């Protein structure tokens, strides 16, 4: 297993609605690609901050006729959560994404199989891109870590 | 024309759904659905499982995707993956063009859902410069859609757009994420196809939705026939009226109850049919006889579109049970229709906005054969 990318960083609410793209090079065609992604915190624990953000969203998005009722029941929108999702591009284009909530994810790609959301197939040499789409950060800070490794032997990767 | 019940908004573990495609199709079969659109968030990888699921269950699977972006969720049907990550809130037309060029159509999903941070990107915030680019809008979202608050402004917005002269299809979408027991019912989008077997051809389903051949319903099917000038027309068709001041359109509406358990005539009883238009309600037809067809004569003057809505009982309350997409009426000599669009290019003497459905997407049929009376059948 060869490490291709080990990166980490912090994002804040200002990074909501932005993408972070990492670019890496695969030298020889790989038999498998292993992507580990984790971020924390996931949920906003601060009750007062949650209430404020929910009321703001209701003012912005709810029908005026029902917004007062929605506000009374603001707690049903708790907990507010961060959402960061991954997508992958190989040298010739899109290879899939994992739009889902769990803040710890592990994805594998080989020629025959791929984790849900990704597209199985050859893993050619060239420039690859891995994008973190930061849909929303509600906590004052959110830390992420992303590790990409490649293997020459798909069997060494375990099951997908 | 066979009307095939579809579920047009679904998810699997390829995004954040909790049932496999096969599990969902087994459930779909129990619900009486003839097809689904697989619209996972930002990926089409789930289609790798489509052949096996379709073979086992007989439920047709149409490829789609839900663009799950920062500024809105947009459903695509019949297109491969098209790029969204490089688009800002004023760039949606660039994105729509990508889908259209790839042979697909786009629909705004749940336009009035709560947005971030409650539901990220769920409220439509993209700036739309030209509504002609939007093929459909999911005006009924989630389970029991007639009772959902966020569907009210979506339905109103669709009606306003029709009044402004746009031809946009309305659909339903359950936003189906799991097959566990659910209270209540989802709505169907009945799609009008030439033949039953066309339901597994994405091009046919896409074409039907693009042309407005859709009925949105909790169960009952509304067969609508509009007769004018010796021809009959159906939902999604355009009737050209030569002398609108004196002409009438003869409407014939037949309610076909669903045979799906929970949605039958006893359980979802239609109590009245309402003919709606750009001029408001044109007729209210009480339903006491559930068997016979309702008929009415509509003066064509000033009418640009009309649709039929069925009201009745749903889970102990009064609600809209079903509504059709419009039959459109084009007053051939009415120049004032052109005014708001006079700056757009004309095609064969028909303003581009009027010919949008027929010119931009003729499915290979030359405009002269398609005409403005597409779908009309001689009596």
Instruction: Compute the number of strand runs of chain B.
Output: 22
The major sheet of chain A is characterized as: 4 strands, antiparallel
Sheet/helix structural class of chain A: alpha+beta
Radius of gyration of chain B: 20 Å
InterPro entries (chain B): PHP_dom (IPR004013), PHP_domain (IPR052018), Pol/His_phosphatase_N (IPR003141), Pol/histidinol_Pase-like (IPR016195)
GO molecular function (chain B): 5'-3' DNA exonuclease activity; 5'-3' RNA exonuclease activity
Protein name (chain B): Histidinol phosphatase
Domain Polymerase/histidinol phosphatase N-terminal (chain B): 6-71
Question: What would your notes on this structure say?
Answer:
Chain B: One of its GO terms (molecular function) is 5'-3' RNA exonuclease activity. Chain B: It comes from Paenibacillus campinasensis. Chain B: Residues 6-71 form the Polymerase/histidinol phosphatase N-terminal domain. Chain B: This is Histidinol phosphatase. The complex is a heterodimer of chains A (160) and B (379). Chain A has helices spanning 47-61, 64-72; strands spanning 2-11, 18-26, 32-40, 83-90, 93-98, 104-110, 126-136, 142-151. With 160 residues, chain A is an alpha+beta fold. Chain A has 2 domains: 2-43 and 82-151, Jelly Rolls (Sandwich); 47-77, no CATH class. Chain A has a 4-stranded antiparallel sheet, with no helix packed on it. In chain A, strands 2-7-4-5 form a 4-stranded antiparallel sheet, with no helix packed on it. In chain A, strand 4 and strand 5 (93-98) form a beta hairpin. In chain A, helix 1 runs antiparallel to helix 2. The longest helix of chain A is centred in the middle third of the chain and has 15 residues, at 47-61. Chain A is elongated, with a radius of gyration of 19 Å. Chain A starts with a strand and ends in a 9-residue tail after the last strand. The mean pLDDT of chain A is 95. Chain B has 379 residues and is of the alpha+beta class. Chain B has 2 domains: 1-217, TIM Barrel; 219-337, Immunoglobulin-like. In chain B, 17% of the residues lie in helices and 32% in strands. Chain B has a 15-stranded mixed sheet that branches. Chain B has a 5-stranded antiparallel sheet with strand order 16-13-10-11-22, with no helix packed on it. A two-stranded antiparallel ribbon of chain B has the order 20-21. In chain B, helix 2 links the parallel strand 2 and strand 3. The longest helix of chain B has 13 residues, at 151-163. Chain B is globular and about 55 Å long. Residues 334-379 of chain B have low confidence and may be disordered. Classes of the chains: A alpha+beta (160), B alpha+beta (379).
């Amino acid at each position: 297993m060869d490490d291709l990318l080990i990166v980490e960083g912090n994002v804040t609410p200002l990074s909501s609605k932005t993408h972070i793209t990492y670019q890496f090079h695969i030298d020889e065609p790989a038999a498998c690609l292993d992507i580990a992604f984790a971020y924390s915190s996931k949920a906003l624990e601060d009750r007062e901050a949650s209430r404020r953000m929910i009321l703001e969203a209701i003012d912005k998005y709810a029908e005026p006729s029902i917004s007062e009722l929605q506000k009374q029941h603001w707690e049903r929108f708790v907990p507010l959560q961060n959402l960061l999702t991954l997508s992958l591009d190989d040298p010739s284009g899109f290879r899939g994404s994992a739009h889902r909530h769990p803040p710890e994810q592990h994805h594998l790609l080989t020629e025959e199989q791929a984790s849900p959301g990704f597209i199985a197939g050859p893993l050619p040499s060239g420039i690859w891109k891995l994008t973190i789409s930061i849909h929303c950060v509600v906590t004052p800070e959110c830390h992420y870590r992303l590790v990409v490794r490649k293997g020459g032997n798909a069997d060494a990767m375990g099951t997908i | 024309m066979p009307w095939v019940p579809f579920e047009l908004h679904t998810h699997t573990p390829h995004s954040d759904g909790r049932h496999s495609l096969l599990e969902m199709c087994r459930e779909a079969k129990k619900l009486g659905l003839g097809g689904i659109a697989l619209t996972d968030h930002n990926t089409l990888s789930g289609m790798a499982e489509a052949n096996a699921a379709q073979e086992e269950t007989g439920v047709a699977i149409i490829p789609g995707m839900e663009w799950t972006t920062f500024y809105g969720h947009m459903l695509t049907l019949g297109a491969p993956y098209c790029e969204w990550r490089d688009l800002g809130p004023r760039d949606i037309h660039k994105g729509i063009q990508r889908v259209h060029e790839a042979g697909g159509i786009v629909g705004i999903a749940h336009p009035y859902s709560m947005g971030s941070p409650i539901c990220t990107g769920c409220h439509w915030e993209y700036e739309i410069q030209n509504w002609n680019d939007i093929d459909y809008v999911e005006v009924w979202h989630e389970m029991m859609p007639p009772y959902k608050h966020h569907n009210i402004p979506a339905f109103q917005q669709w009606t306003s757009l029709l009044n402004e002269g746009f031809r946009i299809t309305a659909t339903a979408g359950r936003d189906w994420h799991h097959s566990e027991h659910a209270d209540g019912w989802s709505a169907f989008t009945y799609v009008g196809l030439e033949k039953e077997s066309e339901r597994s051809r994405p091009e046919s389903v896409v074409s039907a939705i693009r042309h407005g051949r859709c009925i949105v319903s909790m169960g009952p099917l509304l067969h609508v026939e509009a007769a004018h000038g010796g021809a009959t027309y159906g939902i999604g068709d355009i009737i050209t009226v030569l002398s609108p001041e004196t002409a009438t359109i003869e409407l014939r509406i037949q309610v076909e109850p669903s045979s799906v358990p929970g949605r039958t005539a006893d359980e979802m009883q239609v109590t009245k049919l309402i003919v709606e238009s750009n001029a408001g309600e044109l007729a209210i037809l009480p339903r006491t006889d559930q068997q016979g067809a309702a008929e009415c004569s509509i003066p064509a003057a000033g009418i640009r579109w009309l649709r039929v809505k069925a009201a009745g009982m749903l889970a102990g309350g009064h609600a809209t049970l079903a509504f059709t997409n419009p039959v459109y009426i084009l007053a051939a000599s009415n120049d004032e229709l052109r005014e708001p669009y006079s700056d757009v290019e004309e095609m064969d003497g028909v303003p581009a906005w009027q010919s949008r459905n027929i010119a931009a997407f003729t499915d290979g049929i030359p405009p002269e054969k398609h005409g403005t009376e597409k779908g009309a059948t001689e009596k």
